[in-house]
Each structure stands twice: as C-alpha cells, then as structure tokens.
Amino acid sequence: MHRERLSPADLALYEKQGYLVVQGFCRPDEVDKLYQTALDDDAMRKNALDLNDQNGKKTRLSLWFTPGNDVFGYLTRSERMISSVAQVLDGDAPVCHFHSKLMQKEPKVGGAWEWHQDYGYWYKNQFMFPDKLVSVMVALTDANKQNGCLQVIKGSHKLGRVNHGFAGEQVGADMVMVDNALKTMELVYVELEVGDALIFHSNLLHRSEANLSDRPRWSIISCYNLQSNLAYNETSTAWKVPVDVVPDNAIMDWEAASLSDADFLKKENDPALKDTGWEK
Ligand SMILES: O=C(O)CCC(=O)C(=O)O
C-alpha cells in the first residue's frame, strides 16, 4: 500500500470542485530535467501533432500510451503520482495509465482548446465510469491568463456528461449547456507555477485560450483509469495494464531511455482520428 499523499480535506475539495491543485508536486530540478527532455528528445518532436482551433491557430501535442523507462515514464509511474491518483479514483482495482500528452503551446501561435469534458472524448471509447478516469496536468512552465492557462467551471463534473460535437476541428461541448452552467457556476482560471499539478475529473468542463504572450506554456497531462473500468471501444491497451510504480527519485536518479520506443499516437494508425482534423 502506498503512502497517502492527499489529505481528507484535499479529497473533499476534489469531490466538491472536480479538481485540485497540488503546489510543488515536482521540484524545480525535476521540472528542468523533464522540460529539457521535452525539448531535446527527437521522438517527442517527430511525433508532435498539430490541431487547429476555431481561429486557425495550432495547438501542438505529442501523445503516447505506454509509460516507459524515460523521464516522463518515471514521472507518470512515480509513487507520488500513482498514490494520489489511487486516492481520487477511490476503488479497489489497480491504477492504469491511459495516455500522456506533452502540450506545447508556443508563444503567439499556440491555439485555444474549446470547452469540453475529457469524458466527451472517452465516452466514445466506451469507458463505463467517468468517476474512474482522471487527468493530472503538471506545469513545465508557469501557466497564467496571459499564456492561456486552463479554465474550469468549478463543480461542473456533477452535471454528468454533456453532448459533444465538432467545434472547429476539435470536439467541443454543447454550448447551450456550457452557457447554462456559467450562469450559476464559477469560472476559474487555474494559474499554475512550474512544478504544480492540477488533478481534474473527466467530466469537469474546461478550456484554454490561445497563447498570445511571448512565453511558452508547456505541460504534461497524464490520464489514468482504474483497471476495473472497462473500455469497449479502445484499441490501445495501456488503459487496462496496472502501472509498474517506480520510486519518486527515479526521475533524477535512474538512467533514462529516450522516447524513441514509445507508442505515440499517429493519425494514420488510428481510425478514431480520421476526419477529426488531427494533423501530423
Ligand atoms: O492544455 C490545454 O490548454 C488544454 C488541454 C485540454 O483541455 C485537454 O487535454 O483536455
């Protein structure tokens, strides 16, 4: 059994708001190593996909499924990560890693994300239980209003799944429901400092604006599932494989592989991406 990282108050906040910020989740030296790897690793760059927002700005991401023996694998498999995720998912099945993505929102050109719930996408993969899916965003650079930090509607995970259709080339939530939600629920700009983590429920409505600043906004978002939560329409397999947990010091102390063997998402290999506007 892992050490419990989140307090009862943290868990109560997650349950009430649909999200939780954990300050200083990663130390500065760990973030430096992760960010440098993100910049330097050829595989990460070659496997980046561009997604157009409604204004034609491009949001860039690299997405892979199986967490490996690279520094990102060590972060996503770390004891601190998996114990926190196990606490919020609150079940008796092991935690599995669905996928991770490096979000690369470049100065002036990094595009917006329309309002959506992650489960708006994952429902199409036929995952059964949205409560058993969670995302963890770790800030590799500061994220603030100027560079297009994440915005959330506090408590919106309690709405249940909202219909999603296409918004530009992205999948977006039904704006009637979003506007209704905004009449009574609070819109929060989740500003993060380097190394902070945002843990958020798969039904939390969120979006982000374009990065119009002259600073990059990079982060890694890792998504987790409980093994008992079956997906009936998902071709990747990591989502049902228990994470092989590594100690927290692996990021700094263990020898790290490159991401060249990672199973990156490729548009041409994934029928689910056909016609969705994903560009290699
Ligand atoms: O990083 C962002 O700005 C938004 C990402 C997002 O909404 C998502 O990955 O679901």
Structural overview:
- This protein is of the alpha+beta class.
- The protein has one domain (8-279): Sandwich (Jelly Rolls).
- Helices cover 23% and strands 26% of the residues.
- It has eight helices and 14 strands.
- The protein has helices spanning 8-17, 28-40, 42-46, 71-76, 79-89, 118-122, 175-184, 250-253, and strands at residues 19-22, 49-52, 58-64, 95-105, 113-116, 133-139, 150-153, 164-167, 170-173, 187-190, 197-201, 206-208, 217-226, 278-279.
- 44% of the residues are buried.
- 2-oxoglutaric acid binds at residues 103, 113, 118, 150, 206, 208, 219, 221.
- 2-oxoglutaric acid (AKG) is lined by residues 103, 113, 118, 150, 206, 208, 219, 221.
Q: What is the number of helices?
A: 8
Write out the CATH superfamily name: q2cbj1_9rhob like domain
CATH topology: Jelly Rolls
CATH architecture: Sandwich
| Spatial order of strands in the largest sheet | 1-11-6-13-4-3-2-14
Low-confidence stretches: 271-280
Shape: globular
Structural class: alpha+beta
- CATH class, named Mainly Beta
- Written as H for each helix and E for each strand, in order along the chain, the element string is HEHHEEHHEEHEEEEHEEEEHE
Strand percent estimate = 25-35%
Give the termini distance in whole angstroms: 41 Å
Number of domains: 1
List bound small molecules.
Answer: 2-oxoglutaric acid
Q: What's the main sheet like?
A: 8 strands, antiparallel
Helix content: 10-25%
Cα Rg: 17 Å
Strand element count: 14
